[in-house]
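Curious: why this fold?
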Amino acid sequence: MRTNIMIDDEIMRAAMEVSGIRTKKGVVEQAMREFVTRHARKDLSELRGQVRFADDYDYTAHRKDQR
């Protein structure tokens, strides 16, 4: 989709520098991907009270197995 937008030159330069992306199009596309990914995740606060753990679940045993 072709779209013309005005973007502040300073923020574009900063985005290109920190991302290492060499084109304005690449920076905008990456920013859009990150925006969509971030906002598509379910907010953890929405899950409060909905996740139930088994009474005998031992989270410390799981941690020891991963070491």
